[in-house]
């Protein structure tokens, strides 16, 4: 399926290549570079590029392109999903998936790629199995390895690969047994000029960090599972139990993983935690514009809104800004001239944050007809905006009492205010 | 040594220090080779590599290999090091070995001769006792692309394909593809291996072998038939990547095998809920009956049903695969369920969105309704990538209808202003399409577009012009104003396409703008030379049209333009000029055509149809690369049309359904360990049974079933107890090892055991009694396998199957009867069944059976064993412990007067239950219980089946006793039905009549019954009877008379049953026995059974 993989950085240099079948010349990437140079933005590079003899399927992950070379018909999502899995594995191993971290850990990267794909077909993609085969680097271990000369490659044979629950490694032992769940909800919304909601929905995920000894069998139940409209699960979740009882029953992988993602029915009204008062205008003459944005709390359920960041893609004609903010600071780089970032932080409901001033613009150019839209990030701790609540977590199969914890966070996902 | 300092550059120094301290530094470059040395383009540095590889220190070699891998990764050639590297292929150091493998696979193709040096190492490793080493050896061996070793690879693959370890078999499946790409001539042999591996029941293998199938022989659909149901059932448990491949393959398969569910002329009858959840056979029986209306093939349903849960997968490729399967295979009414899942995928990464949106776009053209509720999910954000925006726009356009058009247009208004001008232009086109599709809004759209003409951005204006042109063409009404307005714009617009469009419009509707048109032409004549070709052509067009309609004003202008064009550089334009001149300018030579010039130029033109660019994509299967590219990708397999007549569905029949159960107590997902029909069952205890019966089923096809699937567990058992002479029987008897494994109590070669036991049994039954009582564990294992075999017949859900069993069973029972069963006097201790015996032994015995038919009355094995378990202890009242019992209908091994009972204990609590045993017994006089052995502990979620014996003293009194755990006691009771108090015997018809003659008068109970229509024929009625009571069949000379014989367990009294079927649903039933109580009870029960459906 996947013939070869090229990793390409944002300056169009190939910095890693790996072939699973016979070698494909790296000149095949020229077609990619061509598309790359045509695209205004790396994001705009088409994910599938046909070439005379091959097909290139690529993903763009934190400034790195993963370009897979395909020769025959294959489901493109198959390849895309796999490439994302590779990137996630690197992230998991090295803390970040960037050119530097990959170059620093080249041998591990190669060993991982070797295990993840056999003849172009995915072999072991579960992080738990891979970690059994190839240990992730830690500072401590690399020091130890240097001294003792031992290696990263696990000496143990990956028994997990043979088990019917491939996601969990065997013989897990912890002195502190803990199970933490993060219920993270993101509000995706489009607010129009007048402040009314064009579209809003809640996308949630439950991320788990489970450090439990042995083979625990967990059951997580919700107070109000009916809220969940559409769900997808980690393979460990027994779908049948969910269908019949609306509980999540699973033997967890060891470590951190995404247990489920869900969608809260869009029929429900989604609470929008903040409102934005904005007045952005460009004057035809005088080559200047006005910018005045105020943010206030709307439906916050009595919680404080934190980590507010407003990002504005200003039109290219804006040369510079002269703004004052009552809260937080703003950055605008007049050289790259793209993004205005206003980092507010915590919101004080008594004194609403405001950013105000003038924009200086290129003269002699027609004014932009559209005002830039505001992208808002925010965070509300201890609140799941949909009202979803975890009822309880039960553990079977092991004797000890684990420490359990649930954390709720609401974030703004793709929260956009049109102005 | 400095092996890992690569990862942290601050340790480069440290490494050097260590190296020198340890005195391992042979060359000065070693230390500095660590850290970032790898990425230096300094080639001199690599000179020492060879030296390092040839040193005898692993650490140096490793270091060298790491640098070499670095070179490979950077795409630099390091093939000259091949001889030095290949020497290390047999290294003990695992990491070094792995890196050598990486190198070997990369360069073997270039250095074929040297690569051969490594082959013997792999050949040796292929024989390694460790499955993972075998697998990895095969993996590397097959990756070495050297044609000379093709035979070696072929041999290795063939061997690995029958390896005991499923992991090795999986690797073999991968190797098939590699070998095929290396040498396509091996195809035939490889297909054989594929065929074999397709039969594999391991979830591990399924995905890989289907992949191999798709790559090597996707057209050999015939290989799939027998494995179709198995694949469907396994699907949920296969790893994600395998799922995608299998689903895609099954989609193609289903399109060739099933009738179209989309036919409108045929009424689609969805089977009711009940049968829907029942097994396939049942449905099949049904579909055979209802032939008139379209009934979906049960296998077709099975596929849809088993793929549906996968829509919830986290893997987007799996979701897409299921979605396309539903799109291509499901009845129109059911396709709707995929939309929600597809919309969910839109939250995923940009690339995923791109592919999913493309597929939604194709779907939305054909089925608007599916995505209409999700309209808002396709709203565009300013941060989306351009190609995502355009796809969303496409979908919004497809979804537009009278009801939502106003919302969509409002949304479009925002988009038109977007800073992303490509997107804004696409929006204008979209508006144009909405306007043509929905006539109500055409005027609104047109006005909106005209407003856009004053837009500052040229791209937007140009696009608007083009769209307006198209719109005007479709409009019959007059739009003189708009055309005038556009004529004015001609001065400002520079985009050629737009200019051309305006000119064309003016020319086409020149009669409506009589005054302006000549003026426009005048202006154009001035600028003609500097225009683009496309504009020039339109100027010529305009000139010609005006000349024809308004020659007075434009004659000279036209002449002028034609003269200019005559000397144009472009030959197209010169051509056109010549053509036009001949046509319109009257001269002596002008042909017949010039008369029609006006008709030619001013013919009414059909309006262009504004179509979605996704219109023609539906020729490709959704979710494929070809669909994404809209061209046929190499290797794309066409989805066939539905067949007119479905091929014979019986091709998919397998003798016995063999669900794969890699049984794991409480560990695996519950859903993973069971076949599909139990997927919807509730309790875990059922699964347990399912698993047991599943394992037994495979054994019931005794001689034919090989040992393949048992491989992994056999490995452990044969390892622990080298089964020497009886190895054949250990292979044949899958059931033990399965059930053994299920219990996870002990690992031993029960095959060995059974061989021994049956042997013992043949010679001396008392010894075997000793042996079994002597070693409890052994006997228990034996009992277990027995009971398992019994469960084999208890498929409550598949009637079809029961019938099959019924047909099948008599043969076996005959066999059993004649050989195994000792005379009734000496009570049987162990009842060997075919499952316990090796195929060879059975054949031997079969031979024997012919000669030894002299014994008249004999206990035989049951004709049929009902599967219905009875509740002994509910989990609620048992504090998590639940117990069910059923009657395996086997002679009890503990005591000949006892009825054997199987109790399945399951732990449904969250804690271990310890010390399960039988406590205080309160038995009516005459009753006795043989207890099962104390169970020391039972893990949560797991269950165990034990057997016990109860002497009911030929009465239906209940046996009360207490089921005790370490901490609790639960009072329970077992009450048999009269049918369970019997043991089937067999005798000749003659003997039967003789015996019946002796049992008349008081001992005879007769009744005449009205049969339920279903039971009116022979087989169902017989089936009903053997279901109710444990009776043996007696061959009967007449079709309408059925005879059954049994003896009571305790006293051994004969019980004879005769059923005589009469006309019009009546029958006579006669029971002859000395035990009148039993006789009358039995009569009553059989009567009830036969008169009920």
Provide a descriptive summary of the structure in words.
The complex is a heterodimer of chains A (419) and B (1093). Chain A contains seven helices and 23 strands. By secondary structure, chain A is of the alpha+beta class. Chain A has helices spanning 29-38, 76-94, 99-104, 106-116, 127-133, 139-148, 239-245; strands spanning 2-9, 14-19, 48-50, 55-61, 64-70, 117-118, 121-122, 178-191, 197-211, 217-222, 228-233, 247-250, 255-264, 274-282, 288-297, 306-313, 318-325, 329-332, 339-345, 354-361, 374-381, 390-396, 403-417. A nine-stranded mixed β-sheet of chain A has the order 11-13-9-8-23-21-16-19-18, with no helix packed on it. In chain A, strands 2-1-5-4-3 form a five-stranded antiparallel β-sheet. Chain A has a four-stranded antiparallel β-sheet with strand order 14-15-20-17, with no helix packed on it. Chain B is an alpha+beta fold and 1093 residues long. In chain B, helix 3 (47-54) packs antiparallel against helix 4 and helix 24 packs antiparallel against helix 25. Residues 1-43, 265-292 and 657-856 of chain B have low confidence and may be disordered. At the A-B interface, strand 2, strand 4, helix 2, helix 4 and strand 7 of A face helix 1, helix 4, helix 6, helix 8 and helix 10 of B. Chain A: It comes from Erpetoichthys calabaricus. Chain A: Belongs to the adaptor complexes medium subunit family.
Count up the helices of chain B: 48
Q: Can you give the helix content of chain A as a percent range?
A: 10-25%
Q: What oligomeric arrangement do these chains adopt?
A: heterodimer
Radius of gyration of chain A, whole Å: 25 Å
Largest sheet of chain B: 7 strands, antiparallel
């Amino acid at each position: 399926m996947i013939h070869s993989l090229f990793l390409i950085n944002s300056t169009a240099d190939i910095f890693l290549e790996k072939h699973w079948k016979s070698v494909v010349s790296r000149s095949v990437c020229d077609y990619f570079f061509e598309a790359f140079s045509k695209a205004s933005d790396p994001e705009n590079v088409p994910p599938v590029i046909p070439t005379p003899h091959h097909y290139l399927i690529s993903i763009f992950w934190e400034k790195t392109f993963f370009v897979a070379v395909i020769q025959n018909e294959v489901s493109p999502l198959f390849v895309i999903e796999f490439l994302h899995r590779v990137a996630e594995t690197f992230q998991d191993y090295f803390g970040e998936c960037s050119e530097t971290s990959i170059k620093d850990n080249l041998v591990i990267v190669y060993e991982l790629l070797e295990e993840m794909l056999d003849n172009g077909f995915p072999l072991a993609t579960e992080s738990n199995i891979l970690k059994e085969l190839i240990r992730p680097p830690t500072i401590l271990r690399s020091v130890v390895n240097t001294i003792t000369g031992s290696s990263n490659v696990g000496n143990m044979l990956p028994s997990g690969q043979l088990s019917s629950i491939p996601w969990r490694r065997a013989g897990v032992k912890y002195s502190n047994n803990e199970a933490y769940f993060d219920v993270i909800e993101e509000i995706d919304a489009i607010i129009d000029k007048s402040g009314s909601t064009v579209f809003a929905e809640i996308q949630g995920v439950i991320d788990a960090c489970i450090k439990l000894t042995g083979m625990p069998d967990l059951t997580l139940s919700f107070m109000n599972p009916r809220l969940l409209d559409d769900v997808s699960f980690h393979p460990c979740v027994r779908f049948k139990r969910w269908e019949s009882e609306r509980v999540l029953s699973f033997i967890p992988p060891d470590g951190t993983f995404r247990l489920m993602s869900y969608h809260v029915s869009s029929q429900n009204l989604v609470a929008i935690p903040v409102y934005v008062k904005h007045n952005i205008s460009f004057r035809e003459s005088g080559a200047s514009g006005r910018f005045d944005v105020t943010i206030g709390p709307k439906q916050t359920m009595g919680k404080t809104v934190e980590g507010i960041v407003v990002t504005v893609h200003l039109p290219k004609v804006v040369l510079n800004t002269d703004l004052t903010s009552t809260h937080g600071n703003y950055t605008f780089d007049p050289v790259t001239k793209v993004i205005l970032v206003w980092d507010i932080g915590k919101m004080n409901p008594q004194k609403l944050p405001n950013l105000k001033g003038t924009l200086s613009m290129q003269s002699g150019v027609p004014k932009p007809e559209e005002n830039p839209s505001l992208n808002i990030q925010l965070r509300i701790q201890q609140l799941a905006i949909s009202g979803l609540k975890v009822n309880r977590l039960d553990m079977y199969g092991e004797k000890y009492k684990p420490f359990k914890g649930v954390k709720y966070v609401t974030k703004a996902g793709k929260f956009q205010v049109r102005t | 040594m400095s092996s890992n300092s690569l990862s942290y550059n601050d340790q480069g120094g440290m490494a050097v220090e260590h190296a020198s301290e340890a005195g391992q530094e042979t060359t000065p470059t070693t230390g500095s080779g660590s850290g970032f040395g790898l990425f230096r383009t300094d080639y001199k540095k690599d000179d020492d590599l060879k030296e390092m590889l040839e040193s005898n220190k692993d650490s140096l070699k490793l270091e060298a290999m790491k640098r070499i891998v670095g070179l490979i990764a950077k795409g630099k050639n390091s093939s000259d090091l091949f001889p030095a590297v290949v020497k290390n292929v047999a290294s003990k150091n695992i990491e070094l070995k792995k890196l050598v493998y990486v190198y070997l696979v990369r360069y073997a193709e270039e250095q074929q001769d040297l690569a051969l040096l490594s082959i013997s190492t792999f050949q040796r490793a292929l024989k390694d006792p460790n499955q993972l080493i075998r697998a990895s050896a095969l993996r590397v061996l097959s990756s070495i692309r050297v044609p000379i070793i093709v035979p070696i690879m072929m041999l290795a693959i063939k061997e690995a394909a029958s390896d005991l370890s499923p992991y090795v078999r999986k690797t073999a499946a991968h190797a098939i593809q590699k070998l095929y790409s290396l040498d396509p001539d091996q195809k035939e042999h490889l297909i054989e291996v594929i065929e074999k591996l397709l039969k594999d029941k391991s979830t591990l293998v399924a995905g890989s072998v289907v992949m191999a199938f798709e790559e090597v022989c996707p057209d050999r659909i015939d290989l799939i038939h027998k494995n179709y149901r198995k694949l469907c059932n396994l699907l949920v448990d296969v790893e994600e990547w395998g799922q995608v491949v299998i689903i895609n393959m099954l989609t193609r398969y289903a399109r060739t095998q099933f009738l179209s569910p989309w036919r409108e002329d045929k009424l689609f009858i969805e089977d009711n809920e009940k049968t829907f959840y029942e097994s396939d056979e049942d449905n099949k029986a049904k579909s055979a009956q209802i032939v008139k209306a379209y009934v979906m093939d049960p296998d077709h349903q099975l596929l849809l049903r088993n793929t549906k849960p996968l829509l919830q997968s986290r893997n987007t490729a799996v979701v897409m695969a299921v979605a396309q399967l539903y799109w291509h295979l499901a009845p129109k009414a059911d396709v709707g369920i995929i939309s929600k899942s597809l919309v969910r995928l839109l939250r995923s990464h940009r690339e995923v969105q791109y592919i999913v949106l493309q597929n939604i776009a194709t779907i939305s053209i054909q089925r608007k309704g599916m995505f209409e509720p999700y309209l808002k999910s396709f709203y565009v954000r300013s941060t989306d990538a351009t190609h995502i925006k355009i796809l969303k726009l496409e979908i919004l356009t497809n979804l537009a209808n009278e009801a939502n058009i106003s919302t969509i247009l409002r949304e479009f208004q925002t988009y038109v202003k977007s800073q992303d001008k490509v997107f804004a232009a696409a929006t204008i086109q979209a508006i144009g399409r909405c306007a043509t599709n929905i006539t109500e809004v055409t005027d609104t759209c047109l006005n909106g577009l005209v407003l856009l003409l004053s837009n500052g951005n040229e791209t937007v204006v140009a696009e608007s012009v083009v769209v307006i042109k198209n719109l005007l063409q479709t409009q019959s009404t007059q739009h003189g104003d708009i055309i005038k307005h556009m004529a004015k714009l001609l001065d400002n617009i520079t985009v050629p396409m737009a200019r051309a469009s305006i000119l064309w419009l003016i020319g086409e509707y020149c009669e409506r703008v009589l005054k302006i048109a000549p003026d426009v032409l005048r202006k154009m004549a001035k600028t003609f030379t500097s225009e683009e070709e496309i504009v020039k052509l339109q100027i010529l067009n305009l000139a010609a049209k005006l000349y024809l309609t308004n020659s007075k004003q434009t004659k000279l202008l036209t002449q002028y333009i034609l003269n200019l064009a005559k000397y144009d550089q472009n030959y197209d334009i010169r051509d056109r000029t010549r053509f036009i001149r001949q046509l319109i300018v009257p001269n002596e030579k002008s042909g017949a055509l010039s008369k029609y010039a006006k008709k030619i130029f001013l013919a009414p033109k059909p309006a262009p149809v504004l179509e979605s660019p996704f219109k023609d994509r539906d020729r490709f299967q959704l979710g494929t690369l070809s669909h994404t590219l809209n061209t046929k990708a190499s290797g794309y397999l066409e989805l066939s049309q539905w067949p007119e007549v479905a091929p014979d569905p019986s091709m998919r029949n397998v003798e016995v359904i063999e669900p794969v159960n890699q049984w794991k107590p409480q560990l695996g997902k519950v859903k993973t360990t069971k076949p599909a029909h139990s997927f919807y069952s509730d309790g875990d205890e059922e699964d347990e049974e399912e698993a047991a019966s599943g394992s037994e089923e495979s054994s019931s096809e005794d001689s034919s079933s090989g040992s393949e699937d048992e491989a992994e567990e056999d490995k452990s058992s044969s390892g622990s107890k080298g089964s020497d002479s009886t190895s054949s029987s250990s292979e044949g008897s899958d059931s033990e090892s399965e059930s053994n494994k299920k219990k996870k109590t002990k690992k031993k070669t029960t095959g060995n055991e059974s061989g021994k036991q049956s042997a013992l049994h043949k010679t001396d039954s008392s010894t075997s009694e000793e042996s079994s009582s002597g070693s409890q564990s052994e006997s228990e294992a034996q009992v277990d396998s027995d009971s398992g075999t019994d469960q084999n017949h208890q498929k409550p859900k598949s009637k079809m199957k029961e019938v099959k069993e019924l047909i099948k069973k008599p043969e076996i029972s005959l066999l059993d009867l004649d050989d195994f069963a000792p005379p009734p006097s000496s009570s049987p201790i162990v009842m060997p069944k075919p499952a316990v015996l090796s195929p060879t032994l059975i054949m031997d015995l079969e031979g024997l059976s012919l000669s030894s038919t002299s014994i008249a009355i004999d206990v035989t094995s049951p004709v049929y064993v009902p599967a219905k378990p009875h509740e002994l202890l509910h989990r609620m009242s048992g504090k998590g412990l639940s117990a069910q019992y059923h009657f395996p209908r086997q002679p009890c091994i503990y005591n000949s007067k006892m009825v054997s009972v199987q109790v399945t204990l399951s732990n449904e609590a969250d804690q271990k239950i310890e010390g399960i045993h039988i406590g205080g017994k309160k038995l009516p006089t005459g009753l006795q219980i043989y207890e099962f052995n104390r169970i020391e502990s039972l893990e949560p979620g797991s269950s165990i089946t034990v057997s016990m014996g109860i002497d009911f003293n030929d009465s239906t009194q209940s046996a009360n006793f207490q089921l005790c755990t370490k901490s609790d006691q639960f009072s329970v009771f077992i009450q048999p039905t009269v049918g369970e108090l019997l043991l089937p015997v067999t005798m000749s018809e003659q003997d039967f009549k003789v015996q019946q003659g002796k049992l008349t008068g008081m001992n005879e109970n007769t009744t005449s019954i009205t049969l339920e229509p279903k039971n009116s024929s022979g087989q169902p009625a017989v089936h009903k009877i053997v279901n109710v009571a444990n009776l043996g069949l007696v061959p009967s000379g007449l079709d309408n008379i059925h005879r059954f014989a049994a003896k009571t367990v305790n006293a051994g009294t004969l019980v004879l049953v005769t059923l005589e079927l009469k006309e019009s649903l009546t029958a006579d039933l006669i029971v002859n026995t000395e035990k009148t109580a039993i006789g009358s009870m039995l009569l009553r029960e059989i009567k009830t059974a036969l008169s009920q459906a």
